Amino acid sequence: MPGHAGTYFYSDYCASFIRSFRLQGGLAADQRDWTAQINHGQFTSIVSFGTDQEGEVYVVDLVGSIYKIVPAS
Fold it and tell me: For residue 32, what are the domain limits?
């Protein structure tokens, strides 16, 4: 996801949302909610994020399923 370099992704265990922001001048900027675009009712209770060596971002839910975040084209 080269277009999202410097973007911080975060979630809430109970609410199961995925959001992001970029840090600019010490403040959160370019805040975005990815939940509807990524989730599609698949995951609940997000427990972790990870990246691979190419910088692609993954989400892990409570039951151990792993989902790759793929930006819309």
Answer: 2-68
Structure pTM?
0.76
Query: Domain total for the chain?
Result: 1
Residues whose CB is less than 8 angstroms from the CB of residue 69 and which lie 6 or more positions away in sequence, other chains included: 1, 9, 18, 34, 38, 56, 57, 58, 59
Q: How far is CA 36 from the centre of its chain?
A: 12
The DSSP result for 25-66, as a single string, is: TTEEEEEEE-HHHH-TT---SEEEEEE-TT--EEEEETT--E
DSSP code for 15 = T
Q: Read off the pLDDT of residues 39-65 as tens digits, 9 standing for 90 and up.
A: 666 777 889 999 999 888 898 888 888
Q: Select from 8, 29, 4, 6 the least CA-distant residue to 19.
A: 8
